[in-house]
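Structure tokens please, single chain.
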Amino acid sequence: MSEPNHNSPEQFRQEAQENSRMMLKKLLVMAVVMFGFGFALVPFYEKICEITGINFLTRKDKDAEALIKNSQVDSSRSITVEFDANSRGPWTFKPEINAMKVHPGELVTVVYDITNNQTRDMAGQSIPSYAPTNAAAHFKKLECFCFKQQALPAKETRRFPVVFVVDPALPEDVKTITLSYTFFEVPVAPSASAAMATSLN
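Here you go.
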């Protein structure tokens, strides 16, 4: 029969210290990895937004104006563009038309109406998405209410134009593009509320 392993108090203390050092090293490594992962999420998120066509901080398409100047309108081809609106809040949100046919390279304007049904001022943000997803890279917006947050005074209706062009490089098999916006409320900072009140007076 083997003899039991009797460790001295000093051995127990040394083992505890060694375990503590190992645990500290592991925690430090995890902290560094998580910190690096947080930075890596930024370009990862932007890429996901690019692929899916969803981006909270929608930016103006830098090459849209150049596309208008340098591209010919392809009148031999028509694309059906459908317009959709989803609201996440106490307002009415809809496009003025549900669909239209456009030619690639043609400058087009569509208008969305948003009504604040509340008795208080609000602010909202829109997120655009596209179907099919590969059409997002070919749908160039020159003007859009999705470029920034929008102030919505109480009981007021605002009309927001979306000016866009469909890139002639859109794949030939894409016959229909659906542009969908989701509009939801965002918190209004006190300074922003004051500025909104001032602009209404």
